Amino acid sequence: ANVGVGPVRGQNNVQGACDMGVLPNxxxxxxxxxxxxxxxxxxxxxxxxxxxxxxxxxxxxxxxxHKALAGEIxxxxxxxxxxxxxxxxxxxxxKGIEALDFVVVQDIFMTKTAExxxxxxxxxxxxxxxxxxxxxxxxxQRFEQAIIATGNVKRDWEIISLLAxxxxxxxxxxNNQQIWDEMRELCPLFYGVTYEKMGDMNxxxxxxxxxxxxxTPWLYKDNLFDTPTGKGQLFAAPWRAxxxxxxxxxxxxxxxxxxxxxxxxxxxxxxxxxxxxxADEPGRVQINRADAQxxxxxxxxxxxxxxxxxxxxxxxxxxxxxxxxAVYMTYQWWVGACNELTQDNLDPISxxxxxxxxxxxxxxxxxxRWAEQYAWTSYSEMKARLKAAVNV
Length: 392
Fold this sequence. Notes:
Blueprint: H1 14-19, E1 26-27, E2 31-32, H2 36-46, H3 64-69, E3 75-79, H4 83-86, H5 90-98, E4 102-107, H6 112-115, E5 119-122, E6 131-134, E7 139-143, H7 156-166, H8 176-186, H9 195-201, E8 204-205, E9 252-257, H10 273-276, E10 284-287, H11 289-295, E11 302-306, E12 311-318, E13 326-330, E14 358-364, H12 368-390
Parallel strand pairs: 3-4, 4-5, 9-13, 10-12
Antiparallel strand pairs: 1-2, 6-7, 7-8, 9-14, 10-13, 11-12, 11-14
Organism: Klebsiella michiganensis
Keywords: Iron, Iron-sulfur, Metal-binding, Oxidoreductase
EC number: 1.17.1.9
């Protein structure tokens, strides 16, 4: 299928996280944290002194290791994220997390990051609670609880409310709708999206500024943009050379990519037997046939992939789709973790790391029987540690 200008997002609520202010520079509804009037509005609604509302843009996740090592961050509360798997230059990330005094992880499955946490807070998954998702087209959709949660788990908002109450800021929400109504009262873009309207229409696209507004199927109606000229503004980004290029020691370029079958850090899809049957540890490195032949590597053999930052074992996937001189790896594999290799060169504006380009080498392993045993043992020991951490 060709999605054209409507590419599929990583998951069904990426847009919703941004809508609700899970951004370092925005309150819910894309309201700037540096705007004093916005801070005053939220402070009044939340019953706090405006003076305690931080007027600075927050920290990006990629900046946390650096700030932790500098002593600027002492504690880390992580919800639904596995930075010890997903972030670039995992050696640096480990050092940063080790420098912290306190780490809390709130998630639905065990992860590498959860394993080292001081406190684990087990949360319900999407099927075990109701709520609202936002699609990539800005459409709000209500969803309902499908199954009864088992074990000592709670909804994310319940966990936050209990913690806040214990810390001296009581939160007394009873259900999702109470939280939703508070949010839309504070967000002009979302004000007209009531729980009832979502129930009747199934799908309401913001902006929806009034109660009788039907939602906005497309932005910039009649091709009028929010610019002085009324036209869209396009510009070319200046080209910057990669921070690291191939050389004699590391002659190949590694690009990290996605693959069908597994998603993100694999904490969810890795717990699905059907998806595990499509692909499993220690993952794969896709390599051009000519490069593989030159290196003495056969298809599906286990190999070492190394960079200036780390070394992992993985399986060679020889393919004519891959350009000569380049190799591709996906970042969800626990044993063949390509982020052991990637570099932490951050874009100055977005703070996104340069995970799409770094220099590596691929080496054949002569003793394939040993390599298979090593990969399997590494994976088995990792799973056993995670299971043991749950049972503590």
